[in-house]
Structure formats: C-alpha cells, structure tokens
Design a protein that fits this description.
Layout (H helix, E strand, L loop, with lengths): L2 H23 L19 E5 L6 H5 L6 E5 L9 H6 L9 E5 L9 H18 L5 E5 H13 L10 H16 L3 E6 L1 E6 L2 E8 L5 H4 L2 E7 L10 E8 L9 E3 L3 H8 L10
Parallel strand pairs: 1-5, 1-8, 2-3, 2-4, 4-5
Antiparallel strand pairs: 6-7, 8-9, 9-10
Helix pairs in contact: 4-5
C-alpha cells in the first residue's frame, strides 16, 4: 500500500467514525417539517358539470349532511332538495341548509357585485366550520367574482392573477377543513377550429380542474325504461385513482364515488 493509499484509508475510516458518532449523539431538528402519516381524511373536492336537469344537484345531495347549499341560481334545486329533506330512497331525512344571493350583471353594478361577493365569502368561511358538505353553483360564483374585480371591462391573462389566487384559496379552505365541496358548473358547446362539436366544456373557473380531486360529467339518457337508470355520470379524471378515468356509471351516489376514489374505504366512511 502506498503512502497516498494509506492516507486515503485513514481519512475514510475517520469519516465513518465521525458519521457513526453523529448518528448516535446528534438529534435532527426538522423545524416546520412534519411527518407524512397514513391517515386519510375521507372528503372529496370535486366538480360536476353537464347540461340542465341531468342530476348534478341530485348527486350532491347524496353527500353527508349537514349540507350547505350556496346559490346564486336557486331555481335548480327546486323539486330536488325536497326529496332529500323528507328521506329519499329509503335513506334517513337529511339536514340541508341554504343561502341565496341576488345578483344580475345586466342591471347590478360593480359595487353591488363586491357587496354580494364579500357576503358570500363570509358565509362560506362560516359554513366550513359547521357543515360536512357544501354545494355551490360555481359558474355563477365565478362570474360574480370576475364582475366584482373587473366590472364590464375586458382583462388580460396576467390581470387575473389576484382573482385566481383568491379563488384557489377558497377551494383549498374546504380541503383544509375536511369538508366535501361540490362545484357545479354549467356547460357550453365545445368549438374546434371554428366549428361546433357534439362535446361540451365546463364554464367557470378554468383552473378548477387542476385543483379538484375528481371531475364528473353528468348526462341524461332517455333510452332506459327506468327513470333512475337514465342518469349517467362519467369520471373524466381522478387524482387518487386513475383506473376509474373515463368510466361511466348509472345513478351514481356520493358514497359510491368515495369508494371508487379510495378503494380501501368503506361506505360508512362517506355516510
């Protein structure tokens, strides 16, 4: 062994001894870093889109109660919510609360939009402390918030930064509170290269798909003889379980969706 080899071996041996000593005597201060545990909060942040009268609200009312509905378009729940507060499909009657907001950008001004928006946010943050599930008509909420920010003026992409940040924060608040959140989105016909298609695309906050756990497309099929079998729901995408992407289900309920997203969960986890 040469002199250089000997010095190199001695240096390696010393580093190994120091490393072992540090491992035994020095504790690691992780500061603000917390360990990731295996416990899962069984709640879903998801969006439902589709044409009118295809079962979006109905699906949302199968979420655990108490349910809070926050509507700028309350007409959509009429004739639907009554079934659930009386007990639907052999299930116990549900506790469902609602709050309605009046705003129409055709005749209301920006000050009115700001007033309604601020009240909505205040109610929403309070609702997160008492409800297990919240249902909102997201397309209308986005239009309200956009009007409160820009009125009727057109805005460039970068000018949406503060509004997008606030909106993402509202959705994240539900996740942090472990509250189920359904974002109901209206749709419009999808156009490709100046021509309309048979497909639809959701209206509202364009970044919602990047935030939610699941995106659902609802549609009505008039062919089945049984009315319940006419309501179809396709899982467009799912963050937690990519195996259910593109699958279509008939008369799907929220507890069933929860078990699809988290296969190891039980129906009681979503009740």
């Amino acid at each position: 062994m040469t002199a250089d080899d000997q010095r190199w071996k001695e240096w390696i041996d010393r580093r190994e001894r120091e490393s072992c000593s540090m491992t035994k005597t020095k504790s690691v201060d992780w500061g603000n870093f917390t360990p990731i545990n295996e416990s899962i909060a069984y709640r879903l942040i998801y969006r439902s889109w589709g044409w009118d009268k295809v079962g979006k609200n109905h699906f949302g009312f199968t979420m655990p109660d108490p349910i809070l509905g926050m509507y700028l378009d309350p007409i959509g729940i009429k004739g639907v919510v009554e079934k659930f507060i009386k007990g639907y499909g052999g299930q116990p009657a549900k506790e469902i609360r609602e709050v309605q907001y009046r705003f129409n950008k055709k005749w209301d001004d920006q000050d009115r939009a700001k007033e309604v928006r601020d009240q909505w946010i205040e109610d929403y943050l309070h609702g997160l402390t008492i409800a297990k599930s919240i249902q909102i008509d997201e397309s209308e909420l986005w239009e309200l918030c956009r009007f409160a920010e820009f009125a009727r003026e057109s805005a460039k992409g970068r000018e949406y930064g503060p509004l997008n940040g606030m909106y993402r924060g509202l959705i994240q608040d539900a996740a942090d509170a472990n509250v189920n959140l359904q974002l109901i989105q209206k749709v419009k016909t999808k156009w490709v290269e100046g021509e309309s298609t048979k497909d639809m695309e959701p209206m509202g906050f364009t970044q919602a798909g990047n935030i939610v756990q699941v995106s659902l497309e609802h549609r009505y099929d008039p062919e089945p003889a049984t009315i319940a079998d006419r309501f179809k729901c396709t899982v467009v995408n799912c963050r937690q379980n990519t195996e259910i992407w593109g699958q279509e289900f008939t008369n799907l309920t929220f507890p069933e969706l929860g078990q699809l997203v988290y296969p190891n969960s039980l129906e009681s986890d979503w009740a």
